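Hey L., structure's done. Input below.
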Amino acid sequence: MIQHPAGPAVGETSRELRLAASVSRLLLPLYRLALHEPIGAFERQVLGLLREFIDFDSAWLGCSTLTPGGPSLHSSQTLDTAPDFVAEWEQCKADDPLVALAAGPGGHAGHAGHAVALCVRHAPLPAPMRILCARQRIRHVLCGAQVALPARRATHLSLYRAPGRRPYAERDVRLVACVIGHLDAALDHNRQCRLRAMRAVHDTAAVPQAAALADAWGRILHADASFLAQLQQAWPGWHGAALPEPLRLRLQPGTGGHLANARIRLSWEPEGDLLLMRASPPAPGDLLAPRELAVARLFGSGLSHKEVARRLGIAPTTVRHHLRQAYAKLEVSDKGALASRLLG
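Output:
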């Protein structure tokens, strides 16, 4: 097994210069892609870019939180793996030692990154991992990881070669060790850029919107402070790294959606396997039926029950019914508060 932390390594000067040149040629397009590509497309292009520098048959790039039961995935991008690769790995991830090995001693993040290469035939892998590698035709693995403490958030990259291929060379391991920290930073930069782009689209709205990025299970990866504040206002007992449970129950993998109540308006849309989310104070139209809204606006503008009834061609008792519904949904109790909510 070849193992290397990032940083200066002992070797011939010519090898060091070639390695530095490879790192430089890789990093320039890496950060350029992070600025412009959508989430998901960026990860796919990163794997294609890496293939220009390291020969591999298939690859996997993931972001996760390290737990005692194995990595808990937030996002995952594969290249040329079998369709069931990630699902099969999920069944035996507690036996996967590669992320812990690549993260370095104790999984600490006090270095720029770490990488290991091993041959499945000779490495002391647990039986479930050997079976996985055999089924997926993986003989050689090159894995790099960057771990951020105290949250133990990890970016991990695995490059695979099939049986009959040569093992990874020391130069390959050192290259991954040098770039894994940059890859982690570029992923973060890409996601922040996407949030900024989303804010820019919606900043022209009359009501300012806050943004966040969550995974398909509702775990918050990035969020504006105002987004978190609005969640706390809408669900006063909520706190933590995951979205409130009523919101999490509405999430469906790969699909967008929306939710509105008297305190918050939320919408979300998929990008890659993550969710871009927006939050703002609710508009009356989010909460009221069309007739309730029409009655409430006329009444709030100063008309009496009878005047509203004549204007809309309905009975005064119907006006009162719609107003009771509007008061309850908007959580107001008098005409002044109703007018302020509708017109303010």
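The chain has three domains: 2-192, 205-280, 285-343. The radius of gyration is 27 Å.

-- N.
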